[in-house]
Amino acid sequence: MHFKLFFIACLLAAGFLPVNAMVWRVNNTAGIQADFKTLNELIQNGHVSDGDTVYVEGSADNYSVSTSLTKRLIFFGPGYLLNENSGLQVLTLMATINSITLDSLASGSQFYGLRLNQIYAGSSVDNIKIARCSLSVYSTGTAIPNTRMTGWEISQNMLNYVTFSTGFMLDGLVFRNNIVTQNTNFGGGLNMLFRNNIFLGLNRIADAYVSNNYFANINAPVFVNCTVRYNMSQYSSAPILAALPASAFNIVGRSLADVFVNTGSADARYQLTATSPARGAGEPVNGVTPDIGAFGTGDPYRLSGIPQIPSVYAMSVPANVPSSATSMTVTLSTRSNN
Question: pTM of the full predicted structure?
Answer without folding.
Answer: 0.89
